[in-house]
Structures are given as C-alpha cells and as structure tokens.
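Help!! Second protein's tokens look totally different from the first
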Amino acid sequence: MKKIISLEERIENRKQREKLERYRGKAETVQKILQCSSCNLKCAMCGIQIEDFHSGCCAAGHQGLRFCECCREEFEEFLAVKNGKKTPDLFWHNNEWKEMWSAWLDYRKALTAFLRSAEFKLLMEELNEKPE
C-alpha cells in the first residue's frame, strides 16, 4: 500500500512541476512584454530603434518616455492641442487622433502602474528563483 501512495505522490509532484513550468513560461512572457515596452533604445510610440541615443531629439520627455523625432513632434502637437495652447493645423489631427494619443497615454500609465505593483514584483522574484 505504501508503494501506491508513493506513486500517487510522484504523479502529483510531476503535475505540480508541469504546472509550475507552464506558469513560468507565461510569467516570462509577461516579463518580456513589459521589458520591451519600456526599452529606452526604441521609440515608446512606434518602436523604431533610436540610433542616436544621446541626441536631443530622442531625449526622455513626458513621463520619461523616449520618442523618435517624428513621434516626438506628433506627441508635442498632441499635448499642445490637449492643453488648449494650439488648435490642430493638420487635417489628420482630428478627434480620433486625440483619442488615440489619450488611449496610448492611458496604456503607458497602466503599464507603469503594473510594473510598480506588489504582485509584479513578487512575480519577478519568483522568476529569479532557481527551479529545484
């Protein structure tokens, strides 16, 4: 009878290890997504690699975000329009354009909040632990 219990325990342990590996894979995916979306070597909006990392056009701006020159110009235009300092002068700077930038900013804020959450920090600690 002891052998049966031992086999059941081994099966249960194996299931737990498999579950942990699936969990680890998903957690690593989340980690990669968040790390890549926060990379300072690429534009925060379009993702293009920033060649001249130290150039003034790509300096960290609003909320520490780094943009390529084109996206920086669009973002600055958005902020000026949003804050009422300017009226849109380009035909595509319509309500949907403003909504796109607003939604993108909300997305970036949500990413930052998740990165700072206790649960994410715990997840990173678990990922950094050595599997047995």
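Here's the second one for comparison:
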Amino acid sequence: MVSREYVKGDLPEKAAILQRDGETYAIAPHIPGGIVYPETLRKIADIAEKYGAAALKITSAQRIAIVGLKEEDLDAAWGELNLKPGAAIGLCVRSVKICPGTTFCKRGKQDSVGLGLKLDEKYHGMQLPSKFKMGVSGCQNSCSEPMIKDIGLMGTAKGFTLSVGGSAGPRPRLGIVVAKDLTEEQALDLVEKIINFYKKYPKPRRIGEVIDEIGIEKFKEEVGL
C-alpha cells in the first residue's frame, strides 16, 4: 500500500496538520524519545493557552501535539516554541520510539535511550521512499513496539535483537528478526546498512514490501548478513 506524502489541506511548510473541523491545525514539536523536562512542558502549555488551542494530545510517536490552532497563529506559535517540528507527515523517518530502558526502568536489559537518541539524531526527518518508523526497547516487554516498526531493536540480556519490515496501519505485519545479540555499535552499523539498502528502491512503498518482492535472503545478502 502506497503512503501519500501529504493529505489535502495539510501545510507541510508549516509542519501543520489540518484537523477534522477543516479550519484549525495541529503542530507537534519534536521531543526525542518523548523525554521532556518541566520548563519545556510549561512553554508548550503556555503557548497552547495563548493561542487558544483546543487541547494538547500525547501522540503515539512520543510527541505533544498542540491541537486546534488557527492558520494565522502557526508561525508565531512555532517561533515562540523554538523547537524543531516533529516529522509527523511526509515520506521520511517519522519517529524513533524509545522505552525508558536501563536509564529509568528496573526491567531494562539494554540502554534503549542511549541507542534510540543516537538513531533519532541521525535519522529523524531523513527523506526516504516511504514513511519509516523505528522502535527501540530495552527488554522483551517491547513497550516501544519494535516488532511493528520498519526497523525494531529489542534489548535482551545478551544485546539487541534487530527486526525489519514491521508496520501497523491497515495492513499490519510483524517484523522479521534478522540479527541477535548485537552491541550498540553493531546495531547502529546494521541500521545504517538497512537505510542505505532502502534508498536504492525509490518507488514509494514500505521496506517490508521491498523485502517481500526481493526475498529475505536477497535482503540479507545486500545488507551483509
């Protein structure tokens, strides 16, 4: 299934998504890993209140969307936020969803925050043939849903397990596990190889569909597995 880059009425140049009322917009500042501090929360709340937002919505991509802004207030709101927009629309890396991992969670087996933030810094917003999502969990509870992400990394006592080709949406599918017991460095290296592989297939389709077309063994060969 081909993902459209934008829905009619969205304002990609303002990182704004048209709402159901057909008149107001939502914007979502980028919050890497969903980790946010009180001063940023206060700023978001103050700006939402100042411009008469209808609500603040915690998104599945670990962002805080300011919902119900007027078009004429978008530039001012972004200027006062002084935060990068989240890549909520477009054919790009939309999000890197991260669980608390060993940074915060007593169940964590691996440092999902450390790895996830490195992935976010490098790939968030990168243009790709279709929308692309990543998930990094610190243990097998998989709170960041890595198995339904285009690339998923799940922590175990021995390292990270990497899966590829998962997605949710109207045609959900689980990712295929292609590597286990990876160090952080090995995980970063393999993700880079997978992204470079995907860039060679410019037709707009999710990476799982590319793997279906060429076969999992050919995919492994191309990324050096």
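Reply: Different proteins will give different token patterns, so don't panic. The helical segments are 38-50, 74-81, 101-104, 112-123, 184-199, 207-214, 216-222.
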